[in-house]
Amino acid sequence: SIKIDVIKSIGKNVYEISVGDSRKDKLSIAIANVKLNHKNFEKLIKGKPDRSYERYKDVSILVNNAINEKVDMLIMPESFIPFEWLPTLARTCAKNSLAIVTGVEHILFNGKAFNLTAVILPYKEVEHRCASISFHLKTHYAPNEKSEISGYNLKEIEGKTYELYKWNGCYFPVYCCYELTSIKDRALFQSYADFLIAIEWNRDVNYYSNILESLSRDIHCYCIQVNSSDYGDSRITKPSKTEEKDIIRTKGGKNSTILVETIDISALRDFQIKSYELQKSNYRFKTTPP
User: CA 139, 143, 145, 146 torsion: positive or negative?
Assistant: First the structure.
């Protein structure tokens, strides 16, 4: 039920990770509306990480709400989950058939800092409920992030790979914040992705808004962006006309919660196989790019 292969047609550092044998035509997606706390990074640096019940409760609220809403996938922002909580999260995902994409709080080891994104995908092995955990190591750190890491006499470690996940027949890559500013990197999965996930901790929402809206049209897929709620612009958008493109879009709120919507993978694929002449008379999506 789990396979890993190099996608040679894209490049030697791009991998396809396949999980699950069933097929889904639609996915119910939950985006987390939660505020990140910069003090958690400072506490981590000082060797006193925040593992309080209050922080755990925030995570539990999001996960339990997603389970109650019977969503297929929950997406949370960059640098959100402490690494040591991931096994518990994976067991919950396996038990409830819930996929989760989330940023992992920076991992510090031997003077090095790692910014990871965890992709937890449930599947069945015979009659057993299981979940795989894959990690994406951030390939491009933002200048401010680099400055803060080096300011504490640490060295950021950059990844060298991207991953295309195939979960129950649906294809999606995952990007972590500043990676989206690379025009080359964000174009890797054109003609491959059904949807694209971007997790962020980013105050420059106008710049990233422009990137995401262009990306949805250029790659011609659903785009899901999840940011800290105080900065906002967390959304699910699709390659459609302006007044219809945003399926969800949110900012603010002091309570941790989720917003849920459905993306129709089958409808997007059915549209994409048509020629321009047939596409232009169907107003559900914008026409595919060259």
Answer: positive
